[in-house]
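In the lab's daily routine, each protein ends up as an entry in a very long ledger. A line of letters takes care of the sequence, but it says nothing directly about the fold. The three-dimensional part falls to structure tokens, numbers that each stand for a local backbone shape. The outcome of that step, for a single protein, is printed below.
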Amino acid sequence: MSEVDLRRLVPRVLTGERGALDLLARACVRLALRVARAHRLGDADAWDVGQDTWIALAARIGTLREPARLPGWLVTTARRRALRVLAGRRREVLCARDLPDRADEAPTPEAVALNTERRRTFWRLAGALPRRHRLLLCLLADHPELTHTQLAAELGIAVGSVGPLRRRCFDRMRRLLVAEGLCG
């Protein structure tokens, strides 16, 4: 919707003219959708940005002093809301339950070869760790369900020492993997 249309439309909304609010809402959401899609948001997120932008405008429509500046305000508001959605994605962590079920798909030969090589390299590097760290890695790999109490009993250490031992083990392993160029 052009500035001229908005200049005429906002006063009509403010006087309560029938249908003017619907026209303004459509124009607002249409503009916000374009902005959201320019930020490469999917349909659901783009519609959320459009709706949030409209809600922000509806809350402020009575205080609007310069209708000609409305398109710029809408674009800025939609852009800020789209950027918030994108920032929220960086904090999202996918869980296995969020991934599609691929149990019926057989792994490709390349995937099998890569996994085999990764496993081989990991355990080769683990061989350079102190005995207690190797044992901890074996327990975690073979029995991920073990609690700290159970790990402590298997390792012959105090329960409160499991966390620090695990952290030191992982730090050493990470350094070895980085030195091999496998982790960064």
